[in-house]
Design a protein that fits this description.
With 139 residues, the protein is an all-alpha fold. The protein folds into two domains: 32 residues; 104 residues. Helices cover 71% and strands 0% of the residues. The protein is built from four helices and no strands. It is elongated and about 55 Å long.
Amino acid sequence: MPDYFAKVGFSFINSNISYSIEKKIMARTRIKVVRKGGYNGFALAMIIFIPLSIISFFNESANGCFNIFGGCEPPPSYYHYPRVLALVSTFSLLLLALPRPDSRKSETHGNKYPLGIIPGVILGIIIFMFSSILGFWYH
């Protein structure tokens, strides 16, 4: 019996010590939260649009066809995926950039985060269109 009480007592003390350590660590990390500024918003847009642009380049170079007189084969089923993903990503990022009433209270997003997303989306669309045209041109 005394061995059982020793184990229970040790586990109780151990759990209290670990709880207090976790509480102190959480308090310190809460203070050191890095706010996301304009560069992070711009980088988020580039992380999404650059891979889509590369995929679109190869998609257009492999499957692109333009003929006014209708001499092209129908495109494969996956042909429009990069465009649809770019469109969905654009609207998603622009929704993320909209100001929210609680954005001033946010610990992770600074006031300049949307100001980084908007130029990132604009530049991402330009890169996407340029890579699509290049892929179509190299066809």
